[in-house]
Write a structure and sequence with these properties.
Blueprint lengths: L2 H27 L4 H26 L1
């Protein structure tokens, strides 16, 4: 992997984790329990990374 690919992967990971934290916070604010908010956030993180890797596979 070259430098651009590593930086792009780090950016995608950062974006996915930030989305996960925001969604978990919103779920907790809406009255969900901590385990439910964690599962919701994990779904968002996995979906965001899935979109990134699907776009990467389509580009190649």
């Amino acid at each position: 992997m070259n430098t651009i690919q590593v930086l792009t992967l780090l950016l995608a990971l950062s974006l996915a984790l930030n989305l996960g934290f925001v969604v978990a916070w919103l779920a907790m604010a809406c009255g969900q329990t901590a385990p439910a908010a964690t599962l919701i956030a994990l779904g968002v993180v996995i979906s965001a990374l899935g979109v990134y890797f699907a776009a990467l596979a389509a580009y190649r």
